[in-house]
Amino acid sequence: MPKKKKIEVSLLEPKTPSENTANDDFEVVGGRKLKGTIRTNTSKNGALGLFCASILNSAPTILHGIPRIEELNRMIEIFESIGIEISWIGEHSVKITPPKKLKLDGLNLASAGRIRSILMLIGALVHREGKFSLPHAGGCKMGDRTIAAHRFGLMSLGISIKTTEHEYEISVEKLHPADITLYEASDTAAENLLIASALIPGTTTLRFAPPNYQVQEVCFFLERLGVKIEGIGTTTLVVHGVKKIHKKIEYQNSEDPTESMMLITAAIMTESKLKITRCPIDFLRVELEKLKRMGQKYECSPLYRSANGRTNLADITIFPSKLRALHDKIHALPYPGINTDNLPFFVPIATLAEGTTLIHDFMWENRAIYFTELNRLGANITLADPHRVIVQGKTALKAAQIICPPALRPSTMILIAMLGSKGKSVLRNVYAINRGYEKIAERLNAAGASIKIIRNS
Is the pLDDT of residue 30 over 50? Predict the structure, then answer.
């Protein structure tokens, strides 16, 4: 195979050596209509929370609906390195069998340092070890994220976290229930505190806890394990902790609203009629309302339940539409606002809308700079500051070569924009996309896209 040409991209942070081990490319022929039906896969974030919560159970746990993605591969590597047995018993079903004693000295540091969800292990591990260390959280490179909501909440439960240059040192004196107000509306912090509280007998109250889909998923799972939780779906959760959990259980992970939003955006960018099934509608309502006010036409089916028995789903059909820019800004908020993972998809959509759109990404310090990568495809996007971009539409997108940013949603945003760009584009080093989406090229191709996977050694 000929050597790949080096492409200089000044806006992107350099990749670490570990991220260069999976450097497949996508060759995308844009301008093709999508058609038919495409199904929403189960949730990455939901699966990660379920994995961490499963450590509370001293009996085997079977989880269904686990996506085959790189982020879960890293979590499985971490689990196996500390002595937890993982076995695939179906295409998307995993059996998790904990040992009597964990081997935390064998922790796979390379894998642990590549995912942010490593933080959610704290809430479970404190019930097995009085003192241990974890590497700093990894994942997307979009600026620093504070762990204050984790730290302050866990401190209230009797858990100490000391941050050193390379790791977090966690120690436990005596665990006790507490009344906690989260320092910020953090999904992962809420999950961490739910998991920690589940095995602390007594009543723990979590206030200002975002009731996002992954938080609710952990709540549903803990209830199946015998932990009573009041207030699910609200910002105040009351956890009635138990002394021990030993229960053979099977649980079904529900669908991913961010994947539904990605598929909705793919239909919009290609001006296609496309039916997206199994969309977690309650976590897409604000996004759909914004699209409706921009002129997007769509239909929703009657509601039905996910296999977890709790999450509402709907099938959404997208129709070709003429879009116009909103008069006010588009910005993410804690649930029930626009999901921060869905916000990047409004950037390519805004390139199709007549007028000027201001998009404000309050959460991440550096993510907005990645939005300007669409200028390489012919977009007209101005970076106002580290959090805001101004998108001028409507612009005709054209093919280009782009290296994936080291961030999942911005990388996927670029891929979807390429579907609506005339000509043959190349998206380099797509590990960031494979972190969160299973067989995305194959599935989009089945709906009429043209994405060729180029394997690079």
Answer: yes
